[in-house]
Amino acid sequence: MAHQDDIALMAHLMRRAGFGAGRDELEERVKKGYEATVEELLHPETQPEVDAYTLLRYQPASLLPGGQPPMGNVNWMYYLVNTQRPLEEKMALFWHHVFATGNSKVDNYDQLLEQINLFREKGMGNYRELLLDVAKNPTMIFWLDNQQNHGTAVNENWGRELLELFSLGAGNYTEKDVRECSRAFTGWTFETKIPRAPYGRFPWKFEYRPEDHDDGEKEFLGHKGRFNGEDIIDIVVQQPACGKFICRHLYNFFVADEPQVPAWPIEPPQDQKAIDTLVGAFRDAKFDMKPVLRTLFNSDFFKNARFKHMKSPAEVVVGTLRLVGGHELPKPGIGELSMQPTYMGQDLLNPPSVEGWHTGKEWINSGSLMARINFVAEKVGDTSLPGVQAIIGRLKQRGSLSPEQLVDGCLDQIGPVEVGADTKQELTSQAKEWGQISWDNGNAQIADQRVAQMLQLIAATREYQFG
Amino acid sequence: MPETQTAQKDPVIVVLQLTGGNDYLNTVIPYNNPLYRDNRKAVGIPDNQIMHLDKDYGIPHYMAPLKQFWDDNKLAILHGVGWKESPRSHFRAMDIWHTCEPIKVGTEGWLGRVAREFDPKKENVVTTVSFGPSLPRSLAVPGVPVACVAGPLEKYGFLPTIQGEQRKQVLERFAAMYKPAIGTGPVMDYMADTGIDSLKGEDILKVAPQKYSSTVQYPNTPIARKLKGIAQTHLADLGSRIFYCDHSTFDTHAGQNPGHQNLWTAVTEGVDAFMKDLREHDHADNVILLMFSEFGRRVRDNGSGTDHGAGGVAFVLGEKVKGGHYGEMPSLKPEHLVQGDLNPNMDFRSVYSTILDKWLKLNPAPIVNGTFEQPAFLH
């Protein structure tokens, strides 16, 4: 049997690099080894893809969901819950946090899903290439109005956010740089025949219009030339600020909660050495993401960061659904399930603004805390679900459990989750009210219920909100 | 202190945040100024679609419900609000409005400080109620409760599936697990406070929709739903003093017409229904409503919209508001613009200071971090 600490470390890796894993999977991965698991995660192509046909058979409307929720959410939720390439999907979520693009304006989940697919395919590739693809991504172009950025009338929206939110961070460029950067992207637009509603929509396609491009000389971050957009991206990625900015994002998303992005120019990172290590890997790999991620997951600063990250609503919902099982098929009801992150403050494919979501502690307020607890408690309390049955099954093997054993067993099986002494005392007091539980002599149903209720109580703890 | 007469008369502030950078010049239009037409070739509001407020300014027709407030002398227009070094970043700019800290990163929201003054012993966990999925930074102060209502008020509560005798027991256990413990760190403390305060708040807030009835029909828009929730809570006399909601996104870089129109139609119709509702229930006298945005937009349009600017406009309306213009619209002359933007000439903390001093009866200086002029828009 695997050593308890190996299990806990593997659970940590799978929560961060994916969306958690049940005990069987954790034990298998421990056998395979930590670094081997990291390599497997970094090579999604070795694992099967999500079966899109099943989704379409059950939810045909999720193929081209149009502008109204929840079919767009259904599409992505199905991938999130079913993927056997967890890091690929997690990186798609990461880039969605960074390149936050929303349906509130795009009004087109077809295009938003296409953008997520770009993140899926290129999210672990080269950052320079990805940035260039994003600059040419019609959904992004529309979201930040670059189709209105003309040689004769510059629109700064994309140019500014490229620098502020997608590469360098505020404070690392001037207002003039924003202007010049925007000029370089004039003529970058997309071909469209919108709207065709109510008869459907045509896909959007990138288009470069040289006649609308300002080909004059530009002065950008100390460089001079008749720059086009791609030149700008080459200059941007070479800036020392760029690596620092992207690596701080990685740290905040995968390792431990940082202050919100607008505070970064003012507040230094909590672990400068970790950021330096990541930046070094980023530079050495010439902006390839994979070596950076490898460095990150194999580092001590990552391994020591267990539960130093507030789970995002997507992590709460997807992690719970993968744990309890039974949601593999996109059955009726998946629409409501897909909207659960929204109720907790993270409307996937529709972030509140281009800044994306505020993370960490700011996920928590009275309403979102209720939504998180209520959702997880409902799921882990449902003894008909296979994942809950699996947990019960493992505990059942011991025949009967003392109150302390029930608490420890449930904490172990649902995570392992670490709780403070006070929390544990409360859980134990509750278990003591139930007394010894046993699956003998017709008590099985009550014992099952007790396990489920203990899991619910654990899901309601503060500690459970961290991952 | 629910259900008391004094609670009902305490001054209440409602904040409606116009997220994304509202275009000042198309909101309060200097229709006689030739520079307005020169700069707004694409997105300028045609003369026949402007409702004149006076000989200098008008509002676009799609803000029509505000006209009545103006005519009744209940709408204050605060010109040129912002601050000198206004960043063009939405997020930094909004943070500064929320925390009154233009230089460093503020940790306390200005309204959170107000709530702490109102209720230092945390006797009422619904002193502040925010409608929306996230907690605005302006309300956040460690240890100060905020009830955040994301969905319908009726559904606000923990573990609704557990009912009956068991419910009491489970919720008691929950409360015990959320009691603050020494040495667990600020985030755990924050969660402890949030858990306990929400637990107390759910019983209080649930009453509001049950007690509510009204003849006023709210439009079916997100902002109107939020304002209706605010009205329900205010009318239930629960002692709530600070309400918050927002509408977005006013970031009209492109397609400003009709984008700006849809946004303001929703906001002004919602506000109109809200104030009618309060008046119908004789609960309007102790309420003022502040509308602000993190910055205004660039003077010259970009062909279909407007880019990030600096100086903007704020509104305060209510029965006790002294209607009129406060401050002056900053000059549109090219030589007076800063990087193409209106140079703010009223510090946003001035607006807060008047509200704090004249309405909420609090010393503004420690809340807004300094002493600022107070435009006299309150009786």
Task: Chart the SSEs and their pairings.
The complex is a heterodimer of chains A (467) and B (379).
Chain A: H1 4-17, H2 23-32, H3 34-42, H4 52-58, H5 71-82, H6 86-98, H7 103-106, H8 109-122, H9 127-135, H10 138-143, H11 157-164, H12 175-184, E1 188-191, E2 205-208, E3 218-220, E4 223-225, H13 229-238, H14 240-255, H15 272-284, H16 289-298, H17 300-303, H18 313-324, H19 334-338, H20 340-343, H21 366-380, H22 386-396, E5 400-401, H23 403-414, H24 421-434, E6 437-438, H25 444-459
Antiparallel strand pairs in A: 1-2, 3-4, 5-6
Chain B: H1 5-9, E1 12-18, H2 34-39, E2 50-52, E3 58-60, H3 64-71, E4 75-82, H4 90-99, H5 110-118, E5 128-131, E6 147-149, H6 165-177, H7 186-205, H8 207-211, H9 222-235, E7 242-247, H10 256-280, E8 287-292, E9 312-318, E10 324-326, E11 346-347, H11 348-359, H12 365-368
Parallel strand pairs in B: 1-7, 1-8, 4-10, 4-11, 5-6, 5-7
Antiparallel strand pairs in B: 2-3, 4-9, 8-9
Helix pairs in contact in B: 6-7, 9-10
